From TrEMBL:
Pfam family, one: GGDEF
GGDEF domain mapped to chain residues: 358-490
Organism for this UniProt entry: Humitalea rosea
Name the UniProt record assigns to this protein: Diguanylate cyclase (GGDEF)-like protein
Upper lineage: Bacteria, Pseudomonadati, Pseudomonadota, Alphaproteobacteria, Acetobacterales
Gene3D superfamilies, alphabetized: 3.30.70.270, EAL domain, PAS domain
Domain EAL: 499-754
Highest taxon above the source species: Bacteria
Molecular function GO labels: catalytic activity
SMART domains the UniProt entry points to: EAL (SM00052), GGDEF (SM00267)
Length: 757
């Protein structure tokens, strides 16, 4: 391959020497003679005839010839050095003529195409032949494929076009082996084309690693939960992640810090980048599109790259600030109504207690029958009522007064610097504002409120004393009938003290078994036969030293949440007595007990009754449970399952005090009862009121049609008994048939002794 990388210098010395010797001999110009010798290139090497040159011109010509010989030697050395250098190049270097004939190639290129060069057998090597063999070897080794010739021709045409496109300059490409090559093309003089290809696979791999690292860095920047903002020394934006743009109202990263609209709440740090302190976070404000102000937390890096840039890390803390504000609000406000809560109530109450003589007033408000609304229409209705009440209370108070919701349906108003008269005026306004009903989903919900009032310092000098006095006044309103306002007076405290004493005694009575039962007989009107008896609770308190009537006992038991325990005791004692009376002549075949609202609402009550019957060995049909009339009228749904379970067990059910309150015949149809007990209010007017007789007549007719027995309660005279019998009611209970007696009086021991004999 020497012919492809070195030039041949022709040396026809003899003919040239002869020609130039003649010219030298005839020349009078010694410089021209010297140039002629230099052009010959042999100088003193040739044997010249002495007569051919004159003695005057030979020496200068010889000197010039020597200099030219040395220059040519240096040129040949440089040529060889250049050839050696191209041979040592790691890439592939080749030069082609305009008609694509190879005229120079380095060792790397020759090694790559050794087979094609050898095939030329010393003749010209064409680019087309080189590429054809390369394409076949690397891309289409299976020439049996019928599509191969066309594909080879197309690939060869593409490569030739690329070779001749000298405008391409340089490009990177992947060769079939998978390596990356960088090709540099240059057009030389005479239309010749030089190409140099070097392996950049490692470079590409490194670039791929750098690109991957850059992508990871970008991914980290974009996925970071903070805005990242690079600014130059003048505060102009260099780069930013997408989250930063989302922090600003228009979703676009500002062009500079100056145009961002950030409001700093801290003094500029002269040592810090762009005035931000380094090493700590600072809070800044930012206008929101909604018109409010957002809050951002900013941390600045030190100056980077010799003070050319700084990176700000920005977190949007607006939701956190809003949550903090909401938490602070909720710490002192009720979440449903927005009124002050119990914590703020206490602080305001202590404040008016400290006012001394100027004092203030406390009004405690309870909504009457709110629980009934909740139970009947659901909690959504109850919430709607509470929200409406809160709004109306706000309309009824003065500026500076504090309206609070203490919980449930309990509200309070604290009115600083207000006397009793002013407190009464506030209460009157509240009553007026609350008088109008609340409309909920087309349902009119009536509102009524009981208000207890206490005034400082007259009714208490501390917050606890004031709240206690207002509580007593509120309790007094409820005892008097509700839906009114009452100012505290000392007699209220005395009454409550009595009730607390009674409550303590009641708790002790349960533990010390101070209760006992008495039984009032139920008889047929005509025969006077005892068909049953009602068990009634009695209590003689050892602590109080007196009998406590049911009218005192049960309200206190309800407040003390002892009705469950009392119902359980009555059930056990009644069944114990039924077991004693079993099969005894003269004993009532059925014993009726009263069940409280709380017990009937308890899903486990029926199972406890069944367990007690089994434990005492008493037949279920000998026990009758009386349902309170007011519960049946307003709260049937929650007790239906319990009543159905009791009937399934076999226990008898009776509706107590029918006609004395809110119950009606439609409730009788819904309830699985076997007996109606007419209220005393109907019985008392039978002998003189046609209306009462008509009610009784209709009730008896309906009950008979449904297979339900009617019993008249509270019968005290023969005239009442006669009227009852005339209207079709045959069973009565009352003082006429017998007063409530202990078991041993109702069924005398003598009868028991005779039975044993």
């Amino acid at each position: 391959m020497r012919a492809y990388h070195s030039a041949r210098v022709p040396k026809p010395r003899d003919s040239v020497l002869q020609t130039y010797s003649a010219r030298i001999a005839s020349s009078a110009d010694w410089l021209a003679q010297g140039l002629a010798v230099a052009a010959v290139g042999v100088g003193a090497w040739v044997g010249m005839e002495a007569a051919a040159v004159t003695a005057a011109g030979v020496l200068p010509c010889l000197a010039l010839a020597t200099m030219q010989r040395r220059a040519l030697r240096r040129a040949e050395q440089e040529r060889d050095l250049l050839a050696e250098a191209t041979e040592a190049l790691p890439g592939r270097l080749a030069i082609f003529t305009p008609d694509r004939v190879l005229i120079h190639a380095n060792a790397s290129y020759r090694a790559q195409h050794a087979e094609a060069i050898a095939a030329a057998r010393g003749g010209p090597v064409r680019y087309d032949d080189l590429m054809r063999m390369t394409v076949v070897r690397t891309m289409f080794p299976d020439l049996s494929d019928p599509t191969a010739p066309a594909a080879i021709a197309a690939e060869l045409a593409r490569r030739i076009a690329t070779h001749e496109n000298t405008k391409q300059g340089s490009f990177d490409r992947v060769i079939p082996s998978g390596k990356w090559m960088r090709v540099v093309k240059r057009q030389l003089s005479g239309g010749r084309i030089m190409g140099y290809a070097t392996d950049i696979t490692a470079v590409k791999a490194h670039e791929a690693l750098l690109a991957e690292a850059a992508e990871k860095a970008r991914s980290l920047l974009e996925s970071a939960p903070v805005g990242i903002w690079e600014l130059d020394a003048d505060g102009r934006t260099r780069s930013a992640n997408a989250r930063l743009g989302r922090l600003f109202p228009n979703g676009i990263v500002p062009s500079s810090l100056a145009t961002a609209g950030l409001r700093r709440a801290f003094p500029d740090d002269p040592e810090g980048p762009l005035g931000f302190p380094v090493g700590r976070e600072v809070e800044v404000g930012m206008p929101l599109a909604s018109g409010g102000e957002g809050r951002l937390l900013v941390a600045a890096s030190p100056w980077l790259v010799g003070g050319e840039s700084v990176v700000l890390t920005i977190i949007d803390i607006t939701p956190l600030k809003q949550a903090q504000a909401q938490a602070e609000h909720l710490a002192e406000h009720d979440p449903l109504t927005g009124l002050a809560n119990r914590a703020r109530f206490r602080a305001a109450l202590e404040a008016i207690a400290l006012e001394g003589a100027e004092g203030g007033a406390l009004l405690l408000i309870d909504l009457d029958n709110f629980k009934a609304t909740n139970d009947r229409y659901g909690h959504a209705a109850g919430d709607a009522m509470l929200i409406a009440v809160a709004a109306r209370m706000g309309e009824g108070i003065r500026p500076g007064d504090v309206c609070c919701r203490l919980g449930g349906d309990e509200f309070a108003i604290i009115a600083p610097r207000t006397d009793e008269q002013g407190a009464r005026a506030i209460a009157a306004r509240l009553q007026a504002h609350l008088r109008e009903s609340v409309c909920f989903q087309g349902i009119e919900l009536g509102i009524a409120a009981s208000i207890g009032i206490a005034v400082s310092p007259d009714h208490g000098r501390t917050a606890d004393e004031l709240q206690r006095a207002a509580d007593l006044a509120l309790y007094g309103v409820k005892q008097a009938g509700r839906n009114a306002a009452l100012v505290f007076h000392p007699a209220l405290r005395e009454a409550v003290d009595r009730r607390e004493t009674l409550r303590d005694a009641l708790i002790a009575a349960l533990n010390e078994n101070e209760f006992h039962l008495v039984f009032q007989p139920q008889r047929e009107v005509g025969t006077q036969r005892m068909v049953g008896a009602e068990a009634l609770l009695r209590w003689h308190s050892s602590r109080l030293g007196r009998d406590v009537p049911p009218s005192e006992l049960f309200p206190v038991a309800s407040e003390a949440r002892l009705l469950h325990a009392i119902d359980a005791w009555v059930l056990e004692e009644a069944l114990r007595q039924l077991a004693i009376w079993r099969d005894q002549p003269g004993a009532p075949p059925v014993v009726a007990i009263n069940a409280s609202v709380l017990s009937l609402r308890d899903p486990g009550y029926a199972d406890r009754v069944a367990g007690a019957l089994l434990r005492h060995g008493v037949a279920p049909a000998t026990l009758e449970i009386e349902i309170p009339e007011d519960l049946a009228a307003r709260d049937i749904a929650p007790i239906e399952a319990t009543l159905a379970r009791l009937r399934a067990i076999g226990v008898l059910l009776a509706l107590d005090d029918f006609g004395g309150g809110l119950s009606s015949l439609q409730h009788v149809v819904r309830l699985p009862v076997q007996r109606l007990k007419l209220d005393r209010s109907i019985v008392a007017g039978l002998d003189r009121s046609p209306g009462h007789r008509a009610v009784l007549r209709a009730t008896v007719a309906l009950a008979r049609g449904m297979g339900i027995e009617v019993l008249a309660e509270g019968v005290e005279t023969e005239a009442e008994a006669f009227a009852i019998r005339r209207e079709g009611c045959t069973v009565i209970q009352g003082w006429l048939t017998g007063r409530p007696e202990r078991a041993d009086v109702l069924v005398p021991p003598l009868a028991i002794s005779a039975l044993r004999a």
